[in-house]
UniProtKB/TrEMBL annotation:
Keywords: Iron, Iron-sulfur, Metal-binding, S-adenosyl-L-methionine. PANTHER family: RADICAL SAM SUPERFAMILY PROTEIN. This is Radical SAM superfamily enzyme, MoaA/NifB/PqqE/SkfB family. It comes from the Bacteria. Residues 55-276 form the Radical SAM core domain.
Amino acid sequence: MENLAEYLNNGVETLVKQALRAAFKNPLETAFILRYMSASRRAAKRRLRAEKEGTHIPAFLIASIASQCNLSCAGCYARANKSVGESACASQLSDSDWTRIFSEAEELGISFVLLAGGEPLMRKEVLEAAAGFPDIVFPVFTNGTMLDDDMLKLFHKNRNLVPVLSLEGDRQQTDARRGRGVYTELVCAMEAMKAKGILFGASITVTRENLMSVTAPAYIRDLRELGCKIVLFVEYVPVADTPGTTAPDMSDRQTLQARQDRLRDRFDDMLFVAFPGDEEEAGGCLAAGRGFFHISPTGDAEPCPFSPFSDTSLKTCSIKDALKSPLFRKLELGGYLAGEHLGGCALFAREKEIREL
């Protein structure tokens, strides 16, 4: 997978350069990104060295560190997969487990560890542990309702922790899925972070219904005025009791890509990222260790957050061992990571087949 390794390394370098441009007027962020640029290049060399030795190390990792959440959003994949709730909370990874995992990630050359949940701000000790690994950037995907003064101080002090607030679009769209008043709380949180000079982003769930509105220049302009510098478009996966017709299809995905390209040209001081991104160029879905894999709150090594199947636990093995998961190998060799699919996950529609592997 040497070509894939080079593709991912080039992608990371492009991301860092775009982030540097987005943070140009923020001295603290600029200083951090310049230091991180050197670290990311060292990490890329470690990944390429491992590749030549026969071990593929992904550039990204998704870590769901919390099995609790203070919201009950419609269509939540974490609740649908039962990774959020009392049973999951009782067996979730400890703070020391996560510290070990972050240490292993740094040693292997993993450049980005995306922290999710549940609500990751409910695991402050884990966030503090992550802050101790400045060679890794930790985007923290939060619902934004728990950004109090202590959390703002944590993000201000530790620039490798990057808050990413979850949105569905405008006030009506966000409150409809996340609860009344959540949009107002998000706006207040963004204003507070802007005032403190904290680099932050927005994660926007893209459906057929909101595709045009959330990629409209006026909407992005409003986010920029609130201080948002990073926009992540995440294709909706219908994991719960919501009609499958709301998920983007291949045509919608092409529209999203085209509109995102125009936004990059128009807002050159912002960073735009799509997930899962250009799978055709990457040779298929990047899950199952090709570009990333997911660690559940209880330590299960899963192909991705939307495909909660596992034969390996990080409670008893290392990241390097988890990457050798027989399940991951079967998914790649069996062609499960290729082909057209509805929504943001190539594996979701093939749940029954994967369950039988």
